[in-house]
């Protein structure tokens, strides 16, 4: 057997296995790129659950003509230069793999125009070694990425695509989570040319709850308990619903990145248990802001988890912060009082 370097496309397809699981994962990577590019408006168009088309348009910084090819190649990123940067991550992306991976398993076109550049250009990658072709195109300031025919060349992956409806519901759920990560960005989601979600930018902090209610349910505006705790370096804020609430939407964020982190969920659960004895958690939307040097996001390619350098300290901080707002469960009394009020 001889040892050979894998052709670029195959290497990218293998890497795609880690981050591109389904249409929603493509949407996640592309929307995160738009956010990293400073976009304040993002439009997501989906056709047939993303099987046929995923298109993301943004009004962000754009990519210069000379960098279009580079943007599509593996390990190419503008977000990281050194190990020191890796230990102090302030962007959502940094691996430089998403565009290369996605373009290796789909038909991808990238159109972009930075403000300072007069004309817009479009790139698409094709062929075994992913030779990129660049041509002029009409496009406003910002970037549009179109991903067509996801997994057309990887039948084994395509087989795992679920129905249009299921795949779209994953995208919808993802967009909800992202919408709550950045209140200042307006986000539109369409499916088969119909507007499904429209989240307008909320620039005043007091408007945040309006979006929370729109995304996570009215209960947050009506009964949500606001928490704010800690100081610069380690802070927590957000909303918690009263114990027993039927709304169980549970979102957590670390430095504006959505998370499903075991340590965070454990601390929240413990807080509810200690105060109210509740086994069933109500809904919450919780933001943790921590010095980026105190947390490692490079744990998982899709970055669903983090590793806190001082896990115990963060855990206990979350526990105490949540305990302050959880109202003790009063069992029978609470439900009786509510019955009377309703009559
Ligand atoms: P990463 O986000 O990890 O850097 P990607 O493969 O997702 O890697 O993107 C590669 C590079 O392409 C980014 O670092 C960025 O410079 C550029 N890029 C991607 N999407 C956009 C966008 N929507 N607007 C501006 N630049 C972008
Ligand atoms: Mg990226």
Structure description:
- This protein has 343 residues and is α+β, with helices and mostly antiparallel strands.
- Helix content is 33%, strand content 25%.
- It is built from twelve helices and 15 strands.
- The chain has helices at 8-19, 23-36, 68-71, 83-86, 98-104, 155-158, 164-179, 208-216, 219-223, 262-276, 311-323, 332-342; strands at residues 41-47, 53-58, 107-113, 120-126, 131-137, 142-148, 186-191, 194-199, 225-231, 234-240, 250-254, 257-259, 284-290, 295-296, 307-308.
- The strands form three sheets. Strands 5-4-3-6-2-1-7-8 form an eight-stranded mixed sheet, covered by helices on one side.
- A hairpin with a 6-residue loop joins strand 3 and strand 4 (120-126).
- It is globular, with a radius of gyration of 22 Å.
- Bound molecules: adenosine-5'-diphosphate and magnesium ion.
- Adenosine-5'-diphosphate (ADP) is lined by residues 29, 33-34, 37, 58, 60-63, 71, 76-79, 93-100, 143.
- Keywords: DNA damage, DNA repair.
- One of its GO terms (cellular component) is mismatch repair complex.
- This is DNA mismatch repair protein MutL.
- GO terms for molecular function: ATP binding; ATP hydrolysis activity; ATP-dependent DNA damage sensor activity; mismatched DNA binding.
Q: Mean of the pLDDT scores?
A: 90
Radius of gyration based on Cα positions: 22 Å
Strand content: 25-35%
Number of strands: 15
Percent of residues in helices: 25-40%
């Amino acid at each position: 057997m001889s040892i050979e370097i894998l052709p670029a496309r195959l290497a990218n397809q293998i890497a795609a296995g880690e981050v591109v699981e389904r249409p929603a994962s493509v949407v996640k990577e592309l929307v995160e790129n738009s956010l990293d590019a400073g976009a304040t408006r993002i439009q997501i168009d989906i056709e047939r659950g993303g099987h046929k088309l995923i298109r993301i348009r943004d009004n962000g910084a754009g990519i210069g003509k000379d960098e279009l090819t580079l943007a599509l190649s593996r390990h190419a990123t503008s977000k990281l230069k050194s190990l020191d940067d890796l230990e102090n991550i302030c962007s959502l992306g940094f691996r430089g793999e998403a565009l290369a991976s996605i373009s290796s398993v789909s038909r991808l076109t990238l159109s972009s125009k930075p403000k300072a550049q007069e004309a817009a250009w479009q790139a698409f990658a094709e062929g075994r070694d992913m030779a990129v072709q660049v041509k002029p195109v009409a496009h406003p300031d910002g970037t549009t990425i179109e991903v067509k025919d996801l997994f057309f060349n990887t039948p084994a992956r395509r087989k795992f695509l679920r129905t249009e409806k299921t795949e779209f519901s994953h995208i919808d759920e993802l967009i909800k989570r992202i919408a709550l990560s950045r209140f200042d960005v307006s986000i539109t989601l369409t499916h088969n040319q119909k507007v499904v979600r429209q989240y307008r930018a909320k620039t005043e902090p007091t408007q945040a709850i309006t979006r929370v209610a729109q995304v996570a349910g009215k209960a947050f505006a009506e009964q949500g308990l606001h928490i704010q705790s800690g100081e610069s370096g380690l802070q927590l804020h957000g909303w918690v619903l009263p114990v027993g609430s039927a709304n169980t939407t549970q979102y957590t964020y670390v430095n504006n990145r959505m998370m499903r982190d075991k340590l965070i969920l454990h601390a929240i659960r413990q807080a509810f248990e200690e105060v109210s004895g509740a086994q069933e958690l109500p809904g919450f939307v919780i933001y943790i802001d921590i010095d980026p040097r105190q947390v490692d996001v490079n744990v998982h390619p899709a970055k669903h988890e983090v590793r806190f350098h001082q896990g115990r300290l963060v855990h206990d901080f979350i526990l105490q912060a949540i305990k302050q707002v959880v109202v003790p469960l009063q069992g029978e009394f609470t439900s009786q009082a509510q019955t009377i009020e309703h009559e």
